[in-house]
Structure formats: C-alpha cells, structure tokens
Design brief:
Blueprint (H helix, E strand, L loop, with lengths): L5 H12 L3 E6 L5 H16 L3 E6 L16 E2 L11 E5 L7 E9 L2 E8 L12 E5 L5 E5 L20 E6 L10 E4 L6 H12 L5 H14 L10 H12 L21 H21 L19 H15 L11 H8 L18
Parallel strand pairs: 1-2, 1-8, 2-3, 8-9, 9-10
Antiparallel strand pairs: 4-7, 5-6
Helix pairs in contact: 2-3, 2-4, 3-4, 3-5, 4-5
Length: 355
C-alpha cells in the first residue's frame, strides 16, 4: 500500500461521514488524468450512497470521451434541479435608476414590479436573466487545482462558508488551501492519489472506476515511460488491473516530438551550417598540412594533378600490354610478323683469327 498521511485519511473519512452532498471539481483545461480521477471518485462516492455532483471550469475535450461518466460533468454547482434551488431573476443595476421593487399576484401569476427612479431604467427585457441556484454541497473535493481562485466560474467562493474542502493535487505550486490537504508533488498523477485514497478508505473500486483511474495514470506517466513515474503508480496499477481494468493502446500526442514546418530556404541554411561545423570540427581534430624536415609543406594527399594521373594510369591499364620489341618502327614490326626462313635454324659462330 502506498504511504499516505494517516491523519489526513482519518480527517477525510470524518468529513465524508458528516456530509450527504458531495461535489468534485476540476479547474480549467483539465488533463485526462484529472478528469479520470474526478469521475472515479464520483462513481465510488455515488455507489456508497452519497449525492454527488462533478463540475469542470471548462468543457471536456473529445479525447476525454472514453472516460466512464464523462456526460455527468457540469459547468457549475448552481443547477441542482427540482425544488431544491431558488429561482433568481437578475438584471443590470445602476445607482439611482431603480426606486422600488415589489410584486403582485394576478390570476395565479406572480408579477415582479420594478419602479424606475430619477435616472430611469437603462436595461431592457433582453437583459433580464433567470437562473436556479441550489445549495452548495456540504463537502467539495478539488482535483488538480493549485489555487481556489481558479474555480471562480464554478461557484461563488465567498458563499462557501458552510462547505468543507478537500484539496488533492500533485503540483508544486499548490497553495495548500482547504480543510484537508492531500498535496504530494512526488506523485506522478492525481489518479494514483485518488486510487490510494479510495483503497485506504475501504471503498469498493468497481470496473468503471478502476478503468478511469488506470487511463489517468497511463496518460500522466506517458504510458509509464516518464522518469517521474512513481512506485505508487505501479502499485496502484496492479490493484486496478486486478479489479478488471485493462491497459488500452496508448496514443500520446507527439506534437512536441515533431519538427516544426520550415520552408526550403531554412532547411538549406541549416544544412550549410552543419557542413561548416563539420569542417571546423575536422580542423580542430588535428588534420593539419604535412611538413618535411625543413618545415616545407608537402603537397596535398590528393590534388587535381594526382586525380588526372590516376585516371590516365587506369586508362593505360585497360589497354593490352605491348612488348618493347613491338614498340619499334612500323617496318620492324612488319618484319617480325614475316621472319626469314632461317630464323628458327641453329646458328654456328664463325670466329676470325685476325687480330
């Protein structure tokens, strides 16, 4: 079991025991890891009998559609539905333009009357907004949210005087807000934190919950290739796979690994720079001109004249060889072709006594 602060676990257990309504929220542009943790916690708490609401500061992306329960994510906590919420009528207001607000009952209809002041009403019927506001949950879990101000679009922060907050995050810059803080920068994902929390609290982890958590861990650790992958991540993965979760084919976006588009001029310039660097590197490795004992430079190992001589030599080698006798005059060559009759007969030396 992953090491966790037992005092924090006990505190969260007590908060859950005293709360019937629970909210789970994530900030703007959440990752698959954060949403997987949110929905896993949502499914587990709902299965335990809690009334749970999940919210996100921004809408989930298409890449998050494989998470179980993604359709349960709301934009805020205000719309609880039914008769639990108050109906609020809102319209713009400027000092001095409204004298009095009252209401009348007319044939079963409630009429809200706004009497203009000295400046008159500056808004029209199109500026009137109707919305239903419900009670905030008694307990709210924030997942992967470093600052409480990041959730201003989800709920009115000033109205949370009676709401307890559990802060779960693995970011270093987390401000440590909340009544129970479970912030661990050593964790490679918030999904492994939620998995460890549910296991420590004794919650039953169903197949859908396990699959959401495994998908979150897999995404946060780059399919377990990230050097930041913690030991707790592998430990939780083993537990989740025993619950039936399966590792899906991982398709991480490779945008950061691809080269940015460049025009032809930039490519040629880069190639030229690389060639210059290679020449300079070769010069630095000690490939200097050769010198004789008197300090004079030898000619280069391979110059143009040498190339020409070598080419001429190769052409001569391809021609048939000719003996020195055959290189004589044309007449001599002709006589060799037609030797005299006594050419092959033995020769006798006839000496002379004359001195």
């Amino acid at each position: 079991m992953a090491n966790m602060d037992e005092s924090v676990i006990s505190q969260i257990r007590d908060l859950l025991a005293g709360s019937e309504t629970v909210g789970i929220v994530v900030g703007k542009n959440p990752s698959l890891d954060a949403l997987g943790a949110v929905l896993a916690l949502y499914l587990s708490l709902q299965a335990s009998g809690k009334k749970v609401t999940a919210a996100s500061a921004t809408e989930p992306l298409v890449e998050h559609s494989n998470l179980v329960g993604i359709d349960k994510i709301r934009a805020n906590f205000e719309e609880q539905g039914g008769d639990l919420g108050d109906l609020i009528v809102s319209f713009p207001y400027r000092e001095g333009e409204i004298d009095k607000v009252s209401y009348t009952l007319d044939d079963g209809a409630l009429n809200i009357v706004v009497k203009p002041g000295e400046l008159g009403l500056s808004f029209t019927e199109q500026d009137v907004v109707f919305r239903r506001k419900g009670e905030y949950p008694q307990l709210i879990f924030t997942i992967g949210v470093p600052r409480i101000s990041d959730l201003a679009s989800v709920f009115d922060i000033n109205a949370l005087k009676d709401t307890m907050i559990v802060n779960i995050d693995n970011k270093v810059d987390n401000q440590g807000f909340g009544d129970a803080v479970m912030v661990s920068p050593q964790s490679s994902s918030v999904s492994e934190q939620v998995a460890s929390l549910l296991t420590s609290l004794g919650f039953e982890i169903g197949l859908d919950t396990a699959q959401n958590l495994l998908s979150g861990i897999q995404d946060a650790t780059n399919n377990f290739q990230s050097p930041k992958t913690s030991a707790a991540a592998f430990e939780m993965v083993g537990i989740l796979m025993n619950k039936g979760a399966a590792r899906a084919q991982f398709r991480k976006q490779q945008e950061e690994r691809e080269f940015p588009p460049q025009d032809q001029g930039q490519v040629l310039q880069q190639l030229t720079q690389r060639q210059d660097q290679r020449r300079q590197s070769s010069s630095q490795r000690g490939e200097q001109p050769r010198r004789d004992q008197r300090g004079r430079n030898f000619p280069p190992r391979r110059d143009q004249n040498q190339n020409q001589n070598q080419s001429q030599y190769q052409q001569e080698q391809r021609q048939p060889s000719v003996s020195p006798t055959q290189q004589g005059s044309g007449q001599a060559g002709q006589s060799l072709k037609n030797p005299p009759e006594d050419w092959f007969t033995p020769k006798v030396y006839k000496g002379s006594t004359n001195v």
